[in-house]
Amino acid sequence: MSGSASAGGRQPRRVALAGELSGAFADLGTFLPLVIGMLAVQQLDPTGLLLGFGVFALATALVYRRPVPVQPMKVIAAVVIAGGLAADGVSGSGLLLGVVLLVLALFGLVGRLGRLIPETVMNGVQLGVGLYLALAGIELVAGEPWLGIAALAALLLMQFSPLRPAAALVVLIAAGAWGVSQAPQTLDRLELGLFLPAITLPGMDGLRQAALGALLPQLALTLTNATVITAAIAAEYFPHDRERITPDRLAFSTGAMNLLLAPFGAIPMCHGAGGLVVQHRFGARTGLAPAIFGATCLLLGLFLGPNALLLLALLPMAAVGALLVIAGVDLAVTRRLRRASPDRLLVIILTGVACVAGNVVLGLLVGILLEGLRVRWTAGRSV
């Protein structure tokens, strides 16, 4: 599944473009629930939020030239949705995380972290990310089972047809049309205009909220899932880009863009292993996919502003969940599991289970502990 084979000029241009379009919106299963949830709970500015994603995704496309995703930071989003972080704290989180990630990246500390993680643990975390995506997808499908199962069936059938490169795009368009048919009056409420974000800086209270409420757990998740694990999966998909898509560079771009965009109303954003897997699974191979996603966010923010939330809410989450199920299973069930020796397989599986039961950080710690025990047990047997 290397990038040299899949991203080269062997694909017909129309097939490649269909894959980029399909992959560009395949990661909405992470984006939409968190963004809609944050906007519904807190008085955040949809214009600044969407412009932030647009600028970050376009910059990512230019820098990495691969389908490196831009996603909401999950811990921050969860705290906001739970009511534990107000708009001032959200802005403060973006600034603080931006500074910390920039410092860590400039000193090369993120890359050193990645080199310390054993291969079995890395494989286990990738298994956990795959399982997490699949389970999150199943949860969304369960919201409207008939619609989710129909979308899942359509995706599977299209894998054996000429529509395979555009499978995700076809399902999302069909699901969007269904959503519009169920609430056609929503389109009448949309008002076009030119919307610009307000520049706001957090006060000391916002910075304190951010530091105490979410900074450390989000930093731990970002340093693992959004940098180290993302770089490892990118190296598998695109081996010729190992020197360009590194943990330190991913941390640097995340820090720089959050620091730049937080004052304009952007929420804390990062890259992500799951998003890379989903985009690649549905055909994205170049930076065109994040560029399409970024341009879409930019246009929605500039010309719809607060009204964009009405439009985004029309897309049925069950259909989006079907995309996550396919991509999650694809990542979880790989040759790594079949080729591993029984003792390594045990570490991989238990690490993956810990990721799902807790989070990526817990899975990483459990995996390192188990791998240390495995190495000692193996060395004892060989004496």
Protein architecture, described:
By secondary structure, the protein is mostly helical. It has one domain. It has 21 helices and two strands. The chain has helices at 3-6, 13-24, 28-41, 46-64, 74-81, 87-106, 109-116, 119-143, 145-158, 167-182, 185-189, 204-213, 215-237, 247-261, 273-281, 288-303, 308-312, 317-332, 335-339, 342-357, 360-382, and strands at 71-72, 269-270. The chain has a two-stranded antiparallel ribbon. Helix 7 (109-116) packs across helix 13 and helix 13 packs across helix 14 (247-261). The longest helix has 25 residues, at 119-143. The protein is globular, with a radius of gyration of 20 Å. Residues 1-9 have low confidence and may be disordered.
